[in-house]
Predict the structure.
Amino acid sequence: MKRVLVATGGGDCPGLNAVIRAVVKRAAQEKDWEVVGSIQSFDGILKEPTEIKILDDAAVKGIHYQGGTIIGTTTKGGPFAWPVKNKDGSWGSADRSDEMIRKLQYLGIDAVISIGGDGSQKISQALYEKGLNIIGVPKTIDNDLSATDFTFGYQTAVQICTEAVDKLKTTAASHNRVFVLEAMGRDAGWIALSAAIAGGAEACLIPEIPYDIKKVKQKLDTRFLKGKGFGIIVVAEGAMPKGGTALAEESTEVGNPNLKLSGAADRLAAELKVAGVEADIRTTVLGHLQRGGIPVAYDRVLATQFGVKAFEMVLEGKFGQMVAYRHPQVVGVPLPEAIGQQNLVDPKANLVQTAKGVGIAFGD
Ligand code: F6P
């Protein structure tokens, strides 16, 4: 019997379970393959006792429409930076990658499918360079991986954000207020941009287009005639004013190197007041609501395509590659290509021009 190990790493994302199920279902069509899940990314392999789970038909039954991941995930540590407590009580890190590869051999693992974002796929590439038979599957609600047209989870996040715009519109209109809705998107403004178009927001502020607060106010002024009117602004968490930076704090979580982005909506509300906006302003931060719950059908389909393809790449021995959607195909791309560049919103792209075409202001 051959064994393929599946791990989910980084922030969770609607559709992870659909990928896991697709790998298991496709593998079941081959007589000699068993699928094993590592609990909480590669931590399950590195922990003593080992935390792994056999993933058979029963384990994945009906999970394709469940959010989260049945094998858990983590944004902390990893085989190259395992958190270690120093003698003085501070935290350092250790490279346990060789030990992990030895343990995978001991467990009879022939191949690994690593489902994760940018950070996880950098780890996949480093493990591949050390000789591990690994295949990456891209995931992130932010849709910021360049090698694939879309990542699963993104459409679900857009749907959730759009529904929030729809809901805020009725209360904004009733009270003649301005609502600032903060969406996720640390480097890329895809969620905010799509939801602003779908929901019909007045302005959309994204990391790729730093804003001038006076221009944002000008747009709101056109919406408030004789004090009546309302306005919705969708702002990505990584948005910044011209000459400024995104608002972020250092993570206090041991082993989590990521900055925590927060405060874009409140900053914008304060800036609008200083700029002279008279209407009442309220802020709503969507946060992790965008990552939770049932994946929309599109994400389930894409996740299933990715899972089937990933296992077929295992069969073909196409290691050191990441599965990618390049319309209309699902293909394998070399990992260095996949992690080399982020997929950011091009200010000249059609989606931005479309938004401007229906009057959405970017403050540029
Ligand atoms: O990378 C996806 C993402 O959703 C970002 O948009 C956000 O900044 C981050 O995850 C939050 O992650 P955490 O789970 O660490 O709070």
